[in-house]
């Protein structure tokens, strides 16, 4: 995705910096990508999180609930970074 | 005493090295400790976007690739005074703890023991850094695959901090000078700490010895296996591809 046309949110968790790039359409997340120096096992699960978030209502509760669901399903471990940290980064993008 | 494999890849192209790195994790070579020194290059962490993290117009003479583990950019300038290491081990909950932070701590302990050998005040700073007097001297990154772990890390002997700042995508107008100053003050390297240049081979020998002591094993030099070489050849196109690096 072309990040120049999205809003950016930056949030630093204990495990690293999370930069979110988000575009919104009709109150839903249309496109989203994340860049950062955090850790996540398995790594590929990030794509499942991003896929899940597309089409999710752009509010804190829905975003966090959806991230947590993927954490559960994929057995994600991310030392120093929690679903709430990703949510915070995305919310910062939405507040821009 | 148990023997583990040891390999010193020397000065390498990081695209080739990252392919071998993944091949050692996924191959049949068993527990392995290895060294390499990267040529002028930038390795992105798995979750980093090149155009977000780098000022790409200033990176044209750098080789850029991505690794399979998370964490931040590994930047290597043309001085080539960095010792990079890799460890592949079966997670046995003794030598290689299941707990992620504990396993970082165990492996980083090898470099800490080395720095202490040189009289430095080295410590582990969770999640993945080693510091000397609270300044980062080593960054480390781990991934896991089918009951095994792969940890890569670097020990800086010398480092061109101004060059790293030059190619990094730090929005200069937004970030305060304070932020840049904290990056400058937050990093250090062995030559600076010791006030003299040590021979890289000598430092590697100490690390190797500290590794053997910490893991109670003997390191024995051996080459990649046939399977690992085949895996490497299959993985090389990925590490050279635009899709992998600039996704």
TrEMBL record, chain A:
Gene3D superfamilies cross-referenced by the UniProt entry: CO dehydrogenase flavoprotein, C-terminal domain
Residue span(s) of domain Lipoate protein ligase C-terminal: 14-87
Assigned EC number: 6.3.1.20
Catalytic activity annotation: L-lysyl-[lipoyl-carrier protein] + (R)-lipoate + ATP = N(6)-[(R)-lipoyl]-L-lysyl-[lipoyl-carrier protein] + AMP + diphosphate + H(+)
Pfam families: Lip_prot_lig_C (PF10437)
KW ATP-binding (keyword) present: yes
Pathway(s) this gene product operates in, as recorded in its UniProt entry: Protein modification; protein lipoylation via exogenous pathway; protein N(6)-(lipoyl)lysine from lipoate: step 1/2; Protein modification; protein lipoylation via exogenous pathway; protein N(6)-(lipoyl)lysine from lipoate: step 2/2
Keywords attached to this entry: ATP-binding, Ligase, Nucleotide-binding
A GO term for molecular function: ATP binding
Protein name: lipoate--protein ligase
Domain of life according to the entry: Archaea
Gene Ontology BP annotations: protein lipoylation
Source organism: Candidatus Methanoperedens nitratireducens
Enzyme class: ligase
From TrEMBL, chain B:
InterPro entries, per the entry: aa-tRNA-synth_II/BPL/LPL, BPL_LPL_catalytic, Octanoyltrans_LipM/LipL
Pfam families for this protein: LplA-B_cat
Residue ranges of domain BPL/LPL catalytic in the record: 27-219
Source organism phylogeny: Archaea, Methanobacteriati, Methanobacteriota, Stenosarchaea group, Methanomicrobia
EC class name: transferase
Entry protein name: Lipoate-protein ligase A
Protein keywords: Ligase, Nucleotidyltransferase, Transferase
Enzyme Commission number, as recorded: 2.7.7.63
One GO MF term attached to the UniProt entry: nucleotidyltransferase activity
Signal sequence range: none
């Amino acid at each position: 995705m072309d990040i120049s046309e999205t809003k950016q949110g930056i949030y630093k968790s204990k495990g690293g910096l999370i930069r979110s790039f988000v575009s919104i359409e009709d109150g839903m997340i249309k496109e989203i990508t994340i860049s950062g120096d955090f850790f996540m096992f398995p790594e590929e699960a990030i794509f499942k999180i991003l896929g899940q978030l597309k089409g999710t209502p752009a509010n804190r509760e829905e975003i966090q609930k959806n991230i947590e669901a993927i954490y559960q399903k994929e057995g994600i471990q991310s030392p120093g970074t929690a679903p709430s940290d990703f949510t915070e980064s995305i919310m910062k993008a939405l507040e821009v | 005493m148990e023997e583990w494999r040891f390999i010193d890849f020397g000065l390498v192209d990081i695209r080739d090295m990252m392919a071998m790195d993944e091949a050692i994790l996924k191959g049949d070579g068993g527990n392995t400790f290895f060294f390499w020194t990267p040529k002028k290059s930038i390795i992105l962490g798995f979750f980093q976007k090149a155009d977000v993290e780098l000022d790409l117009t200033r990176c044209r003479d750098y080789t850029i690739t991505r690794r399979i583990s998370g964490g931040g950019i590994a930047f290597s300038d043309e001085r080539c005074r960095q010792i990079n290491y890799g460890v592949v081990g079966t997670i046995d909950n003794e030598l290689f703890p299941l707990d992620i932070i504990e396993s970082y701590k165990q492996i980083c302990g090898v470099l800490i023991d080395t720095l202490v050998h040189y009289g430095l005040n080295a410590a582990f700073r969770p999640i993945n850094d080693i510091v000397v007097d609270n300044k980062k001297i080593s960054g480390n990154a781990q991934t896991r695959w089918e009951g095994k772990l792969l940890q890569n890390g670097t020990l800086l002997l010398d480092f061109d901090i101004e060059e790293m700042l030059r190619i990094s995508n730090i929005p200069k107008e937004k970030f305060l000078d304070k932020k840049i100053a904290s990056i400058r003050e937050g990093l250090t390297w062995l030559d600076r700490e010791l006030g003299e240049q040590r021979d890289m081979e000598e430092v590697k020998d100490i690390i190797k010895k500290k590794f053997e002591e910490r893991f109670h094993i003997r390191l024995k030099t051996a080459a990649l296996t046939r399977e690992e070489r085949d895996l490497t050849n299959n993985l090389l196109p990925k590490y050279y591809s635009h899709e992998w690096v600039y996704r």
